Amino acid sequence: MSAPTLNRALWQDQPHIPGTIRDSKLPSTDELDEHKILIKVHAWAINPCDYMLQDRDIPGFGYPIILGCDVAGTVVAISPTSRFRIGDRVFGVTANNGFQEYVTLDERLMARIPDNSNLEFRDTVGFGLCIVTAAMLLFGKDWLNLDFPSLGVRIPKSAKIILIWGGSSAVGSNAIQLVTAAGYNAIVTCSAANFDYVKRLGAVDAFNYKDPDVAEKVAAALFNSECECAGILMAAGLKAGNDGVCKVAAALEQKQTQTQKQKQKQINFTTSDLLDPLDQVPENLVLKKPDLASFKPFPECYFDTTTATFGGFLPEALEKGVYQVAPPPLVVNKKGLEGIQEAIDLQRLIGEKGYEAFKEAAVNVSGAGGGAVLPAKLVVERS
Question: Are 157 and 24 in a shared domain?
């Protein structure tokens, strides 16, 4: 495999404008330290943060910048000590450096696509950011500090409960599978249309987040359960999701007070929303919220929980076929870097209107679902 000589990227020159494609620096092999791998990208996945960072002027972000986190492709250059080999099919996560034709990854946050599987680049590219985010918030010692997942776990009836708000989201879909493999019972909120989907991933119960009484119903399920609630993860929903969790906690606290039942200890609560403040949190919640000021820099922020992701459980589970690609890929028709801005615009539309937005943009997507309204991860493939 010949070494590449040219590289292009989608540059974000300033906030509030579309990206611009132009040349980008291509690192040489001499610049690759012991943990760095250069890959030729064959697929990019789009995350909500991509359009949010394009739309917001975030303090501390220097422009121009290359956005994008999730990539999959083939290894083209390695350091002498690398555990990877040139030609390996891999997927991984980077921090706002992914929308390039050639990308440098930290090998501690990437994995091989199993040779014994039918998985393609489009299938694995969506795992990166959502699974490291879910794992950090679920298993990180500063967050929910749950037990790590492992293969072959069977959940006992007495298992503790984890509430996942936004269970059909990308983070939620992986959080369900991770906590189930760690021996917890996952109950989730999502739309009613996705109840079967989240239960296929392992959720034991699901509640419609659009139901005006959802907080009361979730609180009743927690109150009436013989299992302790070991934590709550707000996986999707931004401020509305945080508010929903707080309403559940308030309703649960009221039920305990009304029945003079011994008050359950405080429940740890963490959220994937780094941007919106939580001003009022019920007393029975212990908020463990990452924020931009205290957040460890990339990639160190994810190293404590790689046991649940690229450093162990995920590649093993994929190789054994016991971990599902969730959400499935929805491939944008326009290929290459030229398709990324179109995909970001569609992701923005989903953020504003939900997956019903696919009804308006079905001609722009293909792949899993063929434009159907379902949980999906937007993917752009290389030309």
Answer: no
